[in-house]
Amino acid sequence: MPATSSPTEISADTLARFDQALATIQEVLAPFAPMTADDPGRPLYEMQTMHEAFCRQTLLVLDENRDALPPVYGLETVEWGLRTFDALRLRMLRLGELATEGQATVAVLADGLVDAAIKGYVLLKIVGEPESVRRLQGLREATFRRPSGTPPQGE
User: Fold this and answer.
1) CA–CA separation, 46 vs 51, rounded Å?
2) What digits encode the pLDDT tens for the residues 54-67?
3) Structural domain boundaries of the chain?
4) Cβ proximity of 117 and 136 under 8 Å
5) Do the Cβ atoms of 102 and 90 come closer than 8 Å?
6) What is the pLDDT of residue 63?
7) Under 8 Å between Cβ of 125 and 118
8) In whole angstroms, what is the distance from residue 31 CA to residue 80 CA?
9) Considering just the CA atoms, what is the radius of gyration of the chain in Å?
């Protein structure tokens, strides 16, 4: 972790709010969690622009001809699907973006921690703290085991 940055601690209150937000999202999505395709052997369609236009127009025409449809068609279920799709799509995209940003943040933090640990280990070797180096050496070797013939990094 760079020594020049001024870190902002995550407060217990912030973590509690984060956990509550996750619990709320899980609760809201729970009714949809067991959803599966009608035919598990068929690949799922992706809603592309042309698919969406076709679906919406077809549903309008089906609604106009509701009396001609057999009850088994289940137009009400399809209409529910469209309403639910509209309600969730942008929210799920945003949730995915937030998850990607969060994963990137965690990756950068992990990189900084590993980099700082390697540099700290090397620094201990340079300043001559043999007992401290000895305590870390076995773990370091196991953690950063490299294929034979590969030059060491960070030293």
Assistant:
1) 8
2) 999 999 999 999 99
3) 48-143
4) no
5) no
6) 97
7) no
8) 14
9) 27
87-130 confidence digits (pLDDT tens): 999 999 999 999 999 999 999 999 999 999 989 988 988 998 88
Contact of 78 with 59, CB cutoff 8 Å? yes
Does the pLDDT value for residue 41 go beyond 70?
yes
H or E stretch covering 123 = helix 75-127
How many residues does the structure list for the chain?
A: 155
Query: 45 and 51 in contact (C-beta within 8 Å)?
Result: yes
Contact present, 138 and 126 (Cβ < 8 Å): no
**CA nearest to 55, candidates 92, 81, 37:** 81
Distance CA 3, CA 74 (A): 62
Over range 3-11, report the average pLDDT.
77
Residues 2 and 113 sit within 8 Å (Cβ to Cβ)? no
Average model confidence (pLDDT) for the chain? 88
- Taking alpha carbons only, the member of 100, 96, 106 closest to residue 29 is 96
Residue with tokens 């990756």: 107
Distance of CA 75 to the CA centre of its chain: 34
133: Cβ contacts below 8 Å, ≥ 6 apart: 121, 124, 125
**Would you state the structure tokens that stand for residue 50, as one six-digit string?**
């042309």
